[in-house]
Specification:
By secondary structure, the chain is mainly β. The chain has one domain: Cupredoxins -  blue copper proteins (Immunoglobulin-like, Sandwich). Helix content is about 15%, strand content about 40%. It is built from 1 helix and 8 strands. A 4-stranded mixed beta sheet has the order 2-1-4-6, with no helix packed on it. Strands 3-8-7-5 form a 4-stranded mixed beta sheet, with no helix packed on it. Strand 7 and strand 8 form a beta hairpin. It is globular. The two termini are about 35 Å apart.
């Protein structure tokens, strides 16, 4: 970016801030590791619009499936080293579990 273009961006950003407005924050991605009988971290807090990537680190015949306990979403079976992502648009708390290991639970908190 040229120096004049940088000055324009800085000036526009300063003007927005002076008006009490801010440029929208970029969406972020959190990673949750899943495996035999475990979800780590078990609780993740994100902002609405952020994405959670579920990464399976253990071998499991047929793969590991991440599911919302209320049935609102479910990943495909994930083989070892496969990932699946979901963007959470609405605030709320989303209890999750590994379908093959129902005692392995966690939650995604969307603010």
């Amino acid at each position: 970016m040229s120096d004049p273009a940088r000055r324009i961006v800085r000036t526009a950003s300063a003007a927005l801030l002076a008006l009490g407005l801010a440029l929208p924050a970029a969406a972020e991605e959190a990673t949750v590791t899943v495996g035999h009988n475990r979800i780590e971290p078990a609780r993740v807090t994100i902002r609405a619009g952020d994405t959670v990537r579920f990464h399976n680190v253990d071998e499991m015949p047929g793969g590991h499936t991440i599911a919302a306990q209320d049935g609102s979403f479910e990943s495909p079976p994930l083989a070892r080293d496969e990932s699946w992502s979901r963007t959470f648009a609405e605030p709320g708390t989303y209890p999750i579990q590994i379908r093959q290991h129902p005692k392995a639970t966690g939650e995604i908190v969307v603010e």
